[in-house]
Specification:
Layout lengths: L6 E6 L5 E3 L2 H8 L6 E5 L2 H10 L6 E3 L18 E6 L4 E3 L2 H9 L6 E5 L2 H24 L11
Parallel strand pairs: 2-4
Antiparallel strand pairs: 1-2, 1-3, 5-6, 5-7
Helix pairs in contact: 1-4
Pfam families: Cauli_VI
InterPro entries: Ribosomal_bL9/RNase_H1_N, RNase_H1_N, RNase_H1_N_sf
Organism: Xylaria flabelliformis
C-alpha cells in the first residue's frame, strides 16, 4: 500500500513554521516565495519532527479542507473531480486530460487537486481563495518601514 501523505509542512514560506492537511492552504503560502521549503508527510508527529530538525520548537496549525478524501482515487471513478485553483481557467473539471491538464500545464504557479466529488472540489477552491484573500489583506495592511528624516 502506498504511504499516504496527509500533512504539509511549511518550513519556510509566507507563514512558517506551519502544518496543514490541505494543499489548498499550503500552496499559496509557498508558491513563488523565495527559497521556500515545504515537505509532505504521513503523520502530525512526523511533521513536528521535520520542523524540529530545522530548529523550530513551535508551529502554526492551519486549518482547511483535508486532502485525505483525494487519496487513492481510481481514475475511472465517475465521481472523481479536478479542482484548478490557479491556472489558465479556475474551476472544477470532470476530466484531467481534457479539463484540468490544459489549464495547468506549463502555467507558472499552477495548483490543482484530484478530489472525490464536486463538493470537495468547491471546498478546495474556496479554501485556496480564502488564503489568497487573507494574504492580500495582510500585505495591504502592513505598514512600510518608517522613514527617518533629519531636520536642519
Amino acid at each position: 500500500m502506498k504511504n499516504e501523505k496527509n500533512f504539509y509542512v511549511i518550513i519556510q514560506g509566507r507563514v512558517s513554521p506551519a502544518v496543514t492537511q490541505s494543499w489548498a492552504v499550503a500552496h499559496p503560502l509557498v508558491n513563488k516565495f523565495p527559497n521556500n521549503k515545504h515537505q509532505s508527510c504521513s503523520t502530525f508527529e512526523e511533521a513536528r519532527s521535520i520542523l524540529e530538525q530545522h530548529g523550530w520548537t513551535s508551529l502554526w496549525f492551519l486549518e482547511g479542507p483535508t486532502d485525505k478524501d483525494s487519496l487513492n482515487l481510481d481514475l475511472a471513478d465517475a465521481n472523481v473531480t479536478y479542482a484548478v485553483a490557479n491556472g489558465r481557467k479556475i474551476g472544477v473539471f470532470s476530466t484531467y486530460s481534457t479539463g484540468a491538464k490544459p489549464q495547468t500545464d506549463h502555467y507558472s504557479g499552477a495548483c490543482h487537486k484530484k478530489l472525490s466529488s464536486p463538493t470537495k472540489a468547491a471546498d478546495f477552491l474556496q479554501a485556496f481563495e480564502e488564503v489568497q484573500r487573507r494574504m492580500t489583506d495582510l500585505s495591504l495592511h502592513t505598514d512600510p518601514p518608517a522613514q527617518h528624516t533629519t531636520e536642519d
